[in-house]
Amino acid sequence: MIKLPKRIHLANIPTRIERLDRLTKELGGPRLFIKRDDETGTEVSGNKVRKMEYIVRQALDQGCDYLITCGGIQSNHARSTAAIAAKLGMGSALILRNRGNNELDGNYFLNQLLGATIKLITPDEYKSRRMEIMRDTKLELEKEGHRPYIIPEGGSMGIGTFGYVNAMLEIQEQEKELGVHFDAIVLAVGSGGTYSGLFLANKLLKRDSTVYGINVCDDACYFKNQIANVLKDSFQYVDVELEFSKNEINILDGYVGEGYAVSRPEELRFIRYLAKLEGVILDPVYTGKAMYGLVNEIKSGNLNHHKNILFIHTGGLFGLFPKKMSIFDTKK
Ligand SMILES: *Cc1c(COP(=O)(O)O)cnc(C)c1O
């Protein structure tokens, strides 16, 4: 048994694994399954809460009473942080990237309900100075007598990685119950922490599954570096020697489309298609693009050497609501 750092219990886990029989049949390829990490909770739904179980435990152990983080205006991670802070009686400060005309909808709306302090910054400021801005916020809060803890974008940091090591332990138990072996695991990649956790677990548990990440921003090269950095940061918490090469990090590039959080009609149509076919609702920013990518890769025959593929539904449902109109524009 591998030893993981301590966590607090925040997520509704284990999450179910469901079969996607109709989609599998339509594609005529490997058997497809979906792990419902969109059901890790209501306010905290999605993948970020798994990371937060370890991150917030560390924050509490350090005596912190405030969580500071950053993200896009519809960031699921920011909303999850605001919800967890409220649940634990902590404060939260969110530094959000603001492209102008933000509808009070989706996660941005929920952040306000949850009582987060929100600071909007421009895309340029976000790109070049978000860490500095979070540090300034920390200093201001310290002056008011708080002890803030800074969480990087997406909660992608060494300690957060263990959320998805824990998820892999869950998957192994479920493999036994279901009598299947997932030889491939596919997920959306936005800041790399979730991928890092599954990759790390694959090593720690000596599994042979291939973990494929489908990036929803930047490119494969960026994420190989980003994931390698998060992995190295996680090694301080494990007591075995691990080695990896960047070549083992599988990123299926080509599904960013028009850019982060910008949807193409074919992606929105795919969300409608899957909702009707399987009764599963994907989000436009991450899982919609990633699963659209997975289906395309299967159609192209690139994944035919796999038998059972597990897609991780990493959540993001609230991000669909600000897209209501565009979904209807692509009705046909
Ligand atoms: C953040 C997020 C991801 C990406 O996870 P990372 O660990 O940031 O790579 C995927 N799906 C959803 C819905 C997310 O909110």
What does this structure look like?
By secondary structure, the protein is α/β, with parallel strands linked by helices. The chain has helices spanning about 20-25, 50-60, 75-90, 105-115, 125-145, 160-180, 195-205, 220-235, 265-280, 285-300, 325-330, and strands at about 15-20, 30-35, 65-70, 90-95, 115-120, 150, 185-190, 210-215, 250, 310-315. It is built from eleven helices and ten strands. The strands form two sheets. The protein has a six-stranded mixed sheet, with helices on both faces. It is globular. It has two domains: about 15-45 and about 155-330, Rossmann fold (3-Layer(aba) Sandwich), CATH 3.40.50; about 50-155, Rossmann fold, CATH 3.40.50.1100. The longest helix is centred in the middle third of the chain and has 21 residues, at about 125-145. The structure holds pyridoxal-5'-phosphate. Pyridoxal-5'-phosphate binds near residues 193, 195 and 315.
Mean pLDDT: 96
Question: Total helix count?
Answer: 11
Radius of gyration: 19 Å
- Helix percent reads 40-55%
Ligands in the model, by name, code or SMILES, are:
pyridoxal-5'-phosphate
N- and C-termini, Cα separation? 52 Å
Keywords: Lyase, Pyridoxal phosphate
GO molecular function, one term: D-cysteine desulfhydrase activity
Enzyme class: lyase
Family: Belongs to the ACC deaminase/D-cysteine desulfhydrase family.
